[in-house]
Amino acid sequence: MVRSVLKSLVAIGSIGLVAACSSGSSSSESTGGGDITLTMWLWPGMGFAEKAAQYEEENPGININIQEAEYADAHQNLITALAAGSGAPDISGVDEGYLERIKESSHLFYDLSDYGAADLEGDYLDWKWNQASSDDGSVIGIPTDIGPMAMAYRVDLFEEAGLPTDPDDVAEAMGTWDDYIEAGKQLKEETGSFMFSDVADMYSAIREQGDKQYFETDGTLIIEDSPQILKAWDKSIEAMDIQANIERQTPEWGAAIANGDFATVFLPPWMLQNIKNDAPDTAGLWDIALMPEGSGNWGGSFLTIPSQSDHPEEAYAFITWLMSPDNQLDIFEANGNFPSTPGIYDEPAVKELDDGFFIRDDIGAIFAEAATLVKDVYRAPDTAPINTIMQDALGTVADGVAEPEAAWDSAIQEVNRQTSR
Amino acid sequence: MNTEVRQQHPHTPQKKQKKYNQRTRDRISGYLYISPFFLLFGVFGMFPLIFTAYLSFHRWNILGEREFIGLSNYIGLFTNDPLFWKAVGNTFSIWALSTIPQLFVALVLAFILNQAFLKGKSFFRLSIFMPNVTSIVAVAIVFSAIFGTQYGIINYALSLVGLDPINWKGSYFGTHVAISSMVMWRWVGYNTIIYLAGLQSISKDLYEAATIDGANKIQQFFYITIPMIRPIIIFTVLLSSIGGMQVFTEPLLFGVGSDSQGLTMTLYLYQEAFERFSFGYAAAIAWVLFLIIMIVSLINLIVTRRIKST
User: Fold this and answer.
1) Interface of A with B in 25-54 (CB under 8 A)
2) Is a pLDDT exceeding 50 seen at residue A413?
3) pLDDT tens digits, one per residue of B148-176
4) Which superkingdom, per the lineage (chain B) (predicted)?
5) Can you tell me the distance from the alpha carbon of B232 to that of B199, in angstroms, rounded to the nearest whole number?
6) Burial track A386-417 (b if 16+ CB lie within 10 A, e otherwise)
7) Buried b or exposed e, range B75-98, using 16+ CB within 10 angstroms
8) In this complex, do A9 and B25 lie within 8 Å of one another by their Cβ atoms?
9) Burial class (CB in 10 A: 0-12, 13-18, 19+), A16
10) In the predicted structure, residue A17 carries a pLDDT above the cut 50
11) What is the pLDDT of residues A340-388, one digit of tens each?
12) B166: which DSSP letter?
């Protein structure tokens, strides 16, 4: 009797184990008949499903199994699978925001230069390609879309304030951040509206325009002497009176933009949709110009092949096909993801993109121009947490909790504490 | 197979099996029946606990090598981490602001729901429990809109009566009240249902006798209801204390504010692990958090013993 109880216990246990294993190891199983299934982890909005179906049709024997999870979950799932040593997919999307952490452990991914990735370098924007490659020439991922930043502005508010309204004139009149702040003060005085939503936005925009941020390329912390960081901080403090102190991507932001509380938004192309969603009544009131002093990048990702994959060659063939200029163009047309391949920026589909909501009828052209202005910025794994500290510190000034000097000092102290740990 | 074994080894296994009398067998099978819990607890409860303790002595970013650093994480946490102590303070403040009114409101609601005159009881009982099963994400989005600084309903109402708007996301008071009210909204119904179960165990005779003696409803509430359900109150206080130490989703979704005024202990733990990838440090926080919850529970126990004995 004891034995039979034990037996059934073992049986129950092994069922549990089998269930646990089969849910974990979904990577690269053959479905029989020599077919190869490539598992691909993405998050919603990447728009690859249609293209994957096309690839399956053109390449019999290859199945693409796309599995989506929310943005943060997708990355945490990947990191967990990498740490566990099993369960990672054949192909995984990795966003810019997680890339530096992933690059620290590049041994857990196939080096795509072994498969000939170097030959593709010329197809992509330099700064984008450099993000995913190391000094020793190894390549961790193939670039997908990008998020070059420009400035959307309310023509009616600018007109009321006596500011120029034509995009070229705006870009010229607000060529520097000082000009921009001056214009903002004029706008505030004449119309009562703020120039932009949140001081953290300006800080990020200026920070991204320098090639060096918090660290030297050898990892030395230089935050206190970094010219770009000091500039970003000082300008943000100067602009304190012309920001509405409303955080992005909150219900408040949507209400404020519908109400015309602020006149400009620094945005990558994917964020145009947020304005359209939140303020549908403002159609025809917005135009787009270049940002002061260049551009910057916000968002965009890479396709990587974890070294747990059994089919790196097939995976490589698929992702380089998927991210080829022609296919990026198709994805852009269908889904709006801005291509990272400058070779197609002159295509009518990009150049003459006109959605009727924004005044200018060559939205694609202005973002393509912004894309070429983006600088190659050095980031480190700790860059993202430090950004949060610095933006929060500016937030305490905006909320009236701290004076600028005290906020700077405590932010530096916190940065030092976190990086020295 | 058994017969073979018997022939080859006539003594050893056979004799032992004979020794099992019914009593021993019952005992063994009893342990086997309860063993799934202990096995599962061992795998999913004990192992993580011990592994967390082990991790807390290391520096580890999950993908790289684990580096043993002794007590450094704990020393850093206790001597050089203002953010953690801020999180501890915030947690207690939010806990006090949510638990005390919440349990009081739940008790009153349960008392009302238990009244004989009330029609459609099941409807009310069901609806009071709804917030607890509503998606917390939806709750947080709605509350973010209610507690908006410039376009929130509450500040709008304040402006109607001529009061200054409150900076909900930019001040300690505002953020703590907003998060507490979300916690309260979610758990009031849960505690009400527990209280209701307690109230129904009180004999109706007591209330009838009190009514005959001329006690009104409020007197009945304070002199019959509360003393009779004291053990249940103690139970809910303990549960809410432990829950209150672990508030996480509400501040995560509402936003912690620029001065980290909404940062709670569990949220800090989460940020260290999944945003800064300092898993060793996060493990140390987890153990300190565990100790804090133990201390809070102990204090609860001592206080409630006192109350019981008086």
Assistant:
1) none
2) yes
3) 988 899 999 999 999 999 999 989 999 99
4) Bacteria
5) 10
6) bbebbbbbbbbbbbebbebeebbebbbebbee
7) ebbeeebebbeebbebbbbbbebb
8) no
9) middle
10) no
11) 999 999 999 999 888 889 999 999 999 999 999 999 988 888 999 999 9
12) P
Secondary structure in 3-state letters for A64-122: EEEEECCHHHHHHHHHHHHHHCCCCCCEEEEEHHHHHHHHHCHHHECCHHHHCHHHHHH
Mean pLDDT of A215-225: 93
Contact call for A79 and B63, based on CB within 8 A: yes
CATH class of B74-309: mainly alpha
In the predicted model, residues of chain B with pLDDT beneath 70 are 1-18, 308-310
CA distance B217 to A181: 65
- Which pLDDT score, from 0 to 100, does residue A152 have? 97
Please tell me the predicted confidence (pLDDT) of residue A31. 46
Total count of residues recorded for chain A? 421
Chain B residue with minimal CA distance to A109?
B63
Q: How close, in Å, is residue A262 to chain B by CA atoms?
A: 13
CA distances from B84 to A49, A301, B264, B275, B283 (A): 44, 33, 9, 15, 13
Q: Vertex A220, ends A218 and A225: CA angle to 5°?
A: 125
Q: Is B153 on the interface with A (CB under 8 A)?
A: no
What are A236's two structure tokens?
A: 């943000």
